[in-house]
Specification:
The complex is a heterodimer of chains A (about 250) and B (about 280). Chain A has one domain: P-loop containing nucleotide triphosphate hydrolases (Rossmann fold), CATH 3.40.50. Helices cover about 35% and strands about 25% of the residues of chain A. Chain A has a 6-stranded mixed sheet with strand order 6-7-8-3-9-10, with helices on both faces. Chain A has a 4-stranded antiparallel sheet with strand order 2-1-4-5, covered by helices on one side. In chain A, helix 3 packs parallel to helix 6, helix 4 packs across helix 6 and helix 6 runs parallel beside helix 7. The two termini of chain A are about 30 Å apart. Chain B folds into 2 domains: about 40 residues; about 240 residues, MetI-like (MetI-like fold, Orthogonal Bundle). Chain B is about 75% helix and about 0% strand. Chain B contains 11 helices and 2 strands; from the N terminus they run H-H-E-E-H-H-H-H-H-H-H-H-H. Classes of the chains: A alpha/beta (about 250), B mainly alpha (about 280). At the A-B interface, helix 2, helix 3 and helix 6 of A face helix 7 and helix 8 of B.
């Protein structure tokens, strides 16, 4: 297994609070890595460190080493290139106030794609990849806000795919969605495994059990354990993991 | 219980009276100006120069002068104000310097207009040697309108949700790409509304133009930005205090024209705001 991202002794301060304390974690190529843990365990901070969105957070600091394809994300890769390669899907669906088409085409346009036909191809491909195409193909010009919550979230996934990332980070992507929409988003994630490395932060342990290959359990800014999802949910090594997944706390 | 009801009735009555008191002056001013000024309005009044010691003829040079001043003010204060607002909201970090700038802008808005007028004389007319001219007047009015435009633009920019910016950055956009593609398009209606309100205030100001541009009487229209110009607010002052025997209807007619121009600007600002509010979905 090739490591896509290697995290070594990561410490991160988020808004003045120590959110991650000495995390070592590998993220493997083409896997779905589930990250579970109670709130304030540092899950979201980890995602924000990986694509350096934490740079915008006031009173934040990052120590340790993070390698992306063996390149240090703070010293060896240009910031904007890093954000292109490591895409992010947020907890709430956040379409931009523009048409469905323009939402998906936003990234490619930023990076210099102007040809209408090329953009149309990208939009179609990405909407198909997130299972949204059939529902919106006849109204690509209508406003993204007119879509349902689940459709909006799949639109956001399409938009992230359109910049051709290598890694996709999901920050509780289904927290505002109904079960049917959730199932569709999860289908999309499984389908995307072939081409992408995915990191799924979720408060829903069952979701991690359903879609992730490996699962990491975080508690109070520390990685308690990471293992194959089946192992984590049937016989975790650490008692705290067991307590969390069986619902004793969290 | 009966007492509480009575108190409520009295309070509602007082609130109602206060509200009516606010509207009454507006209605009275408009009614008075309309009744007295409407009979002066004709094509000749609008499109001819003052004649016979301003007791006859029209106010065309003053209308043109005011329009030039508004355009000149817009030319300086719009780019400067909007760019400053973009810098302050999107680029500047929150430190003592930006806080100082914010305080300076707020204080600039509170400076009496005559102070701007005298400052304009000192800086533009004398020091920079622009003379009494449209250039000096526009620059002086620009400084006066800048705080309004900057404050309104900052508010408009800040009202664009942070999440839009975050999404844009997470797709690999630079700061400027984010401002250009996501922030500005959604802030422009608010910026326009604030800008027009600022300019409409500039159109009606007398003190800042008193010594920097305004001419008592000019038989011809200004040709370059270095020419003096007549302007409606100053012309009204001249008609009502400096020239004897000007018919009342000419005075009121001039006021009516100024009011209509300012009113039209304010209405268009309100229209843009209302139209955008209907369109926006967040």
């Amino acid at each position: 297994m090739v490591n896509k991202i290697t995290i070594e002794n990561l410490k991160a301060v988020y808004e003045g609070v120590l959110a991650l304390n000495g995390v070592n974690l590998d993220i493997r190529q083409n896997e779905i890595l589930g990250i579970i843990g109670p709130s304030r365990s540092g899950k979201t901070t980890l995602l924000k460190v990986l694509n350096r969105m934490i740079d915008f957070v006031p009173r934040s600091r990052v120590e340790g080493k993070i390698l992306f394809d063996n390149l240090n994300i703070y010293t060896d890769i240009r910031l904007l290139a890093l954000r292109r390669k490591i895409g992010m899907v947020y907890a709430l669906p956040l379409p931009l106030p523009m048409s469905i088409f323009d939402n998906v085409a936003y990234g490619p346009r930023l990076h210099g794609t102007k040809s209408k036909s090329v953009l149309s191809d990208i939009v179609e491909k990405c909407l198909k990849a997130s299972y949204l195409w059939d529902e919106v193909k006849d109204r690509l010009d209508s406003q993204a806000f007119q879509l349902s919550g689940g459709q909006q979230q799949r639109l956001c996934i399409s938009r992230t795919l359109a910049v051709e990332p290598e890694v996709i980070l999901y920050d509780e992507p289904c927290s505002g969605l109904d079960p049917i929409s959730t199932a569709k988003v999860e289908d999309a994630m499984r389908e995307l495994k072939e081409k992408y490395t995915q990191v799924l932060v979720t408060n829903n342990t069952k979701q991690a059990a359903r879609v992730s290959d490996r699962t990491a359990f975080f508690l109070m800014g520390e990685l308690v354990e990471v293992d194959n999802t089946k192992k984590i949910f049937t016989g975790p090594s650490d008692e705290r993991t067991n307590d969390y997944i069986t619902g004793k706390f969290g | 219980m009966g007492n509480a009801k009575l108190t409520q009735k009295i309070v509602f009555f007082l609130l109602g009276v206060a509200t009516v008191m606010v509207i009454i002056p507006v209605i009275l001013i408009f009614a008075l100006i309309l009744v007295n000024g409407l009979q002066a309005i004709s094509l000749e009044f609008i499109f001819s120069t003052p004649k016979a010691g301003m007791t006859q003829g029209g106010i065309f040079p003053a209308i043109v002068g005011t329009l030039y001043l508004v355009l000149g003010t817009a030319a300086f204060s719009l780019p400067l104000g909007i760019l400053a607002a973009i810098y302050l909201t999107e680029y500047a970090s929150d430190n003592w310097l930006t806080r100082l700038i914010d305080i300076a802008i707020i204080n600039l808005a509170g400076v009496p207009s005559i102070v701007f007028g005298l400052f304009g004389v000192a800086l533009f007319v004398i020091l920079l040697n622009f003379g009494t001219s449209i250039l000096s007047g526009s620059l002086t009015l620009s400084i006066m309108t800048l705080p309004v435009i900057i404050t309104a633009s900052k508010e408009a920019l800040n009202s664009v949700p942070k999440s839009f910016r975050e999404v844009s950055y997470s797709l690999g956009a630079s700061r400027w790409q984010t401002v250009r593609n996501v922030v500005l398009p959604n802030a422009i209606p608010g910026i326009m509304t604030g800008t027009i309100l600022g300019l409409s205030r500039a159109a009606g100001e007398t003190a800042p133009i008193l010594f920097t541009v305004a001419a008592f009487y000019l038989p011809r229209l200004p040709r370059t930005v270095y020419d003096q110009a007549m302007a409606l607010p100053y012309h009204i002052y001249v008609l009502s205090t400096q020239v004897p025997n000007v018919p009342v209807k000419i005075q009121y007619g001039t006021v009516l024209v100024l009011i209509v121009i300012v009113f039209f600007m304010n209405i268009s600002a309100a229209y843009i705001r209302a139209k955008f509010r209907k369109k926006k979905q967040w």
